[in-house]
Design brief:
- Helices cover 77% and strands 0% of the residues.
- The protein is mainly α and 305 residues long.
- It has one domain.
- Helix 2 packs antiparallel against helix 9, helix 8 runs antiparallel to helix 9 and helix 8 runs antiparallel to helix 13.
């Protein structure tokens, strides 16, 4: 064999190894399990304990004292038909999957939407209860948030439906859209922060599970047809960058939220809305963490090309 033939042979072998390196399906199931556990952990702490209810109620009380629902921005957010917007985005995700003729993607999109929506309603009205722990708070259970579930499910469905090279962009946009809807429910007195965080975890569990439902052996059959090793590496790098940026924002937001909650940042700096900012940053951290994980995973995943 000549030197040029040997070089080409090694190049083809390297490309095959790169293209045929699927993300283990166990990673997806692990992500689904962690998100599902997070739903119950959030409920157990923020709803079933006195300290949790105090922390969860503080941002809502702060928003009410500041009359944030009367702010022009809040009024505008309240007038937006969030469920209709989310429904349109879900429909667009379905259309994209159909136009692309990616039937596994279509199934994943439908499972994510239906599973998330039904699970939130079931947990809120049939499973979870809000005990009266002696605090001045409404005892009606509102966890998980239906508005946030719809927003996060729509964003996740689009992230699944679009081609892989677009997933880094849609991952960042999905985090921004989800945190916007979650924040609007807090400043409008509709939901506590834990309600929105639990909703995001519900959507995360179903999105990871929906991706895992696809046949991992399809990776080897489709890897060469989806563009080659160089393109796959470029997409993976973009997804890694977007995911790490979102993860960095999530860590910073969570740390600042904790400092505000604990009073390490004094009221002279935080102002009268310190608890409100703590709740908003907590929601921001959850949204960025969820879509950071989804972007990192789906940017490498070639079963859903």
């Amino acid at each position: 064999m000549s030197l040029s033939e040997l070089t080409r042979s090694r190049g083809r072998a390297g490309s095959r190894r790169t293209a045929a390196r699927p993300l283990p399906v166990a990673v997806l199931w692990t992500g689904a399990g962690l998100c599902a556990a997070a739903v119950f952990a959030v409920y157990a702490f923020f709803v079933r304990t006195v300290l949790g209810q105090q922390l969860d109620e503080a941002p809502l009380t702060s928003a009410q004292k500041l009359h944030t629902a009367d702010d022009p921005i809040a009024v505008w957010l309240q007038t937006l038909p969030w469920f209709l917007i989310a429904g349109v985005l879900m429909a667009i995700a379905v259309v994209i999957a159909v136009v692309r003729r990616r039937w596994a993607v279509l199934i994943a999109v439908l499972v994510t939407i239906a599973g998330s929506t039904l699970t939130t309603q079931f947990l809120k009205y049939a499973v979870f209860e809000r005990p009266d722990l002696g605090l001045d708070t409404l005892t009606l259970n509102s966890l998980p948030s239906g508005h946030t579930t719809a927003a996060a499910a729509a964003a996740a469905a689009l992230l699944l439906a679009v081609p892989r090279e677009w997933r880094p962009v849609f991952g960042v946009a999905g985090a921004a859209f989800t945190m916007s809807v979650a924040g609007s429910t807090l400043i409008s007195y509709w939901h506590r922060p834990s309600d929105t965080v639990a909703a995001m975890a519900v959507v995360g569990a179903w999105t990871f599970a929906a991706a895992a439902f696809t046949d991992p052996r399809a990776t080897r059959r489709r890897g060469r047809a989806t563009g080659g090793a160089a393109r796959n590496r470029a997409v993976a790098e973009q997804a890694r960058l977007a995911g790490l940026v979102l993860f960095g924002i999530a860590v910073v937001a969570l740390c600042v939220s904790g400092l505000l909650y604990t009073g390490v940042i004094p009221a002279s700096i935080a102002g009268t809305g310190g608890n409100l900012w703590a709740g908003l940053l907590f929601e921001t951290s959850a949204a960025c963490a969820l879509f950071a994980a989804l972007t990192l995973v789906l940017g490498r995943r070639t079963v859903l090309p």
